[in-house]
Give the backbone structure.
Amino acid sequence: MNSQDIFKSALTYEKKILDLYLSAVDTIDDNRGKALFKALADDEKSHVDFLEYSLDILASEKVIDLERLGSVLPSALDDDIRGMKEKIPGKMLGDIKRVLNAALVLEVETSQFYKKACENSSGPIKAVLKKFHEIEQRHVDLVQIQLDYATGNGYWFNFMETDMED
């Protein structure tokens, strides 16, 4: 696959997950859930914008500016994640878990796409794909953390919150 084909495929992944997050913003009644899905949607929208920019740059045979690719999530949500631990109303939990499960599947799929594309690329495109993989892996971690809490499986930030044997 050439760089343009890789970016076109990536655009399909990014638009799919963007649509899921935008629909979640409309579906979820809990303000914390809305804020999480809105932040994820904004991040995915920036990825769509970057990929569209990159396709234009590749068509004109110029160099992609990697600095334009970023993520607001690490800085914007890290401080707020612990505050989301407050109990989510029971009637909304089912919707949140359903969206988080769907999001996790799509985020893992997207992260794996970028990892494989990165492994099969070289040069400046490899650096772009590597950065995308890092960002998408962060999304996987964030969604998994939220899903762990929503399902009440005893994990928080990937650590056992309670000891079931004591």
Q: What stands out?
A: Residues 3-160 form a domain with the Ferritin fold (CATH 1.20.1260.10).
